Amino acid sequence: MIYLQKITAEADLAVCLMIRRRVFIDEQGVAEALEMDEYDEAGGLKNCPHYLALSDGVPVATCRCLRKDGGAVKLQRFCVLPEWRGRGVGRELLAMLEKDCREHGVTRIEMGAQCHAVPFYQKCGYTVTSGQFMEAGIPHMKMEKEL
Predict the structure, then answer these.
(1) Region 2-146: CATH code
(2) Fewer CB within 10 Å, N or C, the chain?
(3) In 3D, which of 47, 46, 53, 65 has the Cα closest to residue 16?
(4) Which residues share a beta bridge with 109?
(5) Per-residue pLDDT at 47
(6) How far, in Å, are 10, 19, 30 from residue 101 at the CA level?
(7) HEC string of the chain?
(8) Of residues 130, 131, 128, the one with CA closest to residue 145
(9) What is the largest CA-CA distance in the chain?
(10) Is 4 exposed, middle or buried (0-12, 13-18, 19+ CB in 10 A)?
């Protein structure tokens, strides 16, 4: 069973950053200077909540949501550890995140999705809103979903 934890402590934030390091920096080759930013510090948690997905207490996935004007958030840094992919973890994390967003008055989720992940997000109800663009050397497309 997957449990979603909204991060409030710096120690838990470190676990999220470890997952992101494994996926984005080690696996995908994204430069650390592009991957980590001011929202990854304890002070950034207020305007950019981070989430950690755990399976039986084991950290397996993470993401963060940057608050925008007009009741929207931008989903960022969504990733699942390689050994946990294909088990429905991403779908569960996204569903729980959407529920939390609705409960906090969010009406729309936007994102820049890596092109290989676009079909996954489409199955979860997201629509493509742009053509392809490059970010951190990886092809992306903008997507969104009204909640």
Answers:
(1) 3.40.630.30
(2) N
(3) 53
(4) 73, 145
(5) 80
(6) 22, 22, 28
(7) CEEEEECCCHHHHHHHHHHHHHHHHHHCCCCHHHHCCHHHCHHHHCCCCEEEEEECCEEEEEEEEEECCCCEEEEEEEEECHHHCCCCHHHHHHHHHHHHHHHCCCCEEEEEEEHHHHHHHHHCCCEEEEEEEEECCEEEEEEEEEC
(8) 128
(9) 39
(10) middle
- Give the gyration radius of the chain's Cα atoms: 14
Cβ atoms of residues 128 and 122 within 8 Å: yes
Taking 50 as the pLDDT cut, the residues of the chain under it are none
* CA–CA dist 28, 90 (Å, integer): 18
Q: pLDDT for 115-142, tens place per residue?
A: 999 999 999 999 999 999 999 999 999 9
| Residues contacting 116, CB < 8 A, separation 6+ | none
* Among the listed residues 100, 97, 54, the one whose alpha carbon sits nearest the alpha carbon of residue 78: 97
Residues in the chain: 147
